[in-house]
Amino acid sequence: MPTTAMTCILFEGPLDEAAEFYTSLVPDSEILNIDPWPEGSDHAGEPLVVDFTVAGARYQLIAGGPDVALTQLVSIKLEVDDQAEVDRLWDALVADGGEPSRCGWLTDKYGLSWQLVPRGFTELMATTDADLKERLFKAMLTMNKLEMPVFEAIAAGEA
């Protein structure tokens, strides 16, 4: 069997609920496995480990207890097709207690950090035009949610 890799995240909260939420948002996502705490433990029957995919990438949530705090040191970056998808995911992830941050980052209601990037921005930033790249970057620094129409206007010389 080939070696596999996944990102493991120590997580405080309802592991199965969080994984169900994440997999419901993004195509090509699914819960692969839920392992409960063993019988006889204080948390018997509750999820100890949840394996899932988001957009085909593998993740594992591990019950971390109350001393575990998620930070932006770990985030899930989604590069999406268009502004409508950025908007849909942004709204869903900041709902019910999530918090927007800067430059396309946010923290969801469970405390996990995400980056939402329109694919067009990535393509524009691949330019060899240093002036355009600098103007795009400076615009990004002023934003919470990334706004593709602003980047397109900059690239067209309209902003």
UniProtKB/TrEMBL annotation:
Domain PhnB-like: 6-117
InterPro entries: 3_dmu_93_MTrfase, Glyas_Bleomycin-R_OHBP_Dase, PhnB-like
Protein's name according to its UniProt entry: VOC family protein
Species per Swiss-Prot/TrEMBL record: Orlajensenia leifsoniae
Lineage, opening ranks: Bacteria, Bacillati, Actinomycetota, Actinomycetes, Micrococcales
